Amino acid sequence: MGNVIEVVSVTKTFGDVTALDEVSLQIRENEFFALLGPSGCGKTTLLRILAGFETPDSGQVLLDGTDIVGVKPFRRPVNMMFQNYALFPHMTVWRNVAYGLRQENIDKAEIDRRVGEILEMVSLSPLAERKPHQLSGGQSQRVALARAVVKRPRVLLLDEPLAALDRQIRGEMQLELKRLQHEVGITFVIVTHDQDEAMSMADRIAVMSDARVLQVDDPVSLYENPQDLFVAGFIGTMNFLPGEVGAETISTAVGDFVLPPGRPGAGPGRLAVRPETIGLSLGEGEAGRNSLRGTVADVSFYGAMTHVHVEVEGLDRPLVVTNQGPLRLEIGAAVTLTWPPEAAVVLLG
What we know:
Layout: E1 3-14, E2 17-28, E3 32-36, H1 43-51, E4 58-63, E5 66-67, E6 78-81, H2 93-103, H3 108-121, H4 137-149, E7 155-159, H5 167-184, E8 187-192, H6 195-201, E9 204-209, E10 212-217, H7 219-224, H8 229-234, E11 239-245, E12 249-252, E13 255-258, E14 267-273, E15 279-282, E16 291-301, E17 305-311, E18 319-324, E19 334-338, E20 344-348
Parallel strand pairs: 3-8, 3-9, 6-7, 7-8
Antiparallel strand pairs: 1-2, 1-4, 4-5, 9-10, 11-12, 11-14, 12-13, 14-20, 15-19, 16-17, 16-19, 17-18
């Protein structure tokens, strides 16, 4: 599978603020690619550069091998779907979707065929004659998506497209976006600050922070093998034990712990352990290399799982343990935590 987009050493500043700092990444053919990071990390600036709304100070943006820096937005085989949908209020659903094709003077029969086809894909055919004020948020989002896809762009850029929807509709639309992307065979690039959204939809994710790309990987690899301290803390929940990494163990303020296979080296670092990999048992078991004693500080039940916060003397914050299903524990109860070495990740620095 070849690359559709290659971003090569792109830098962009606004006055004294660096929005992108030597950013490089590749986006593959027919891929659902996510730019993920907190507000101000540079992800929207990068999306706008891909669209042609911003010009980088330096670097290249290659589309199918051709540098498109300086090419006007309307001359790029790229379309963008905005947060606010920007539907024409006086036009019906059908006319909104057909608008871009009409501007290109495409044959009416071809317009009718393509609009009918895309409305069927997004389950809007029965609503073709309605106007935007007669639609729900989810339906309006589908219209905007259909209008963006019907022109068959090489790449579709989506700027926080689900941010305005409530939780239930957002979940439905995540599935809808993924399904549609597979059906139409267009490369999707989505900007989001929502980790769950990116993890559930994207084939690969670029995690960004402070104008830089920290790691690009598939969701499972990002979760199980983060290569950066920020990535480890940003993707899901992570417990950190700071200490000194040695040959076989890491020495921390609360004990020595066996390192996982493939440790990165020696020096100051952190042992990172996911909550669901930690076993919890009542009572004060033997504390040691891969075992910790603590007391229950809080128990939160979320239906499918229970989060237990455990205070350990010598640590600044409680450790989090996740248990499938309900778990009844008294606050202040003594517990022992254990985990297998291979469940942890070592991050130096």
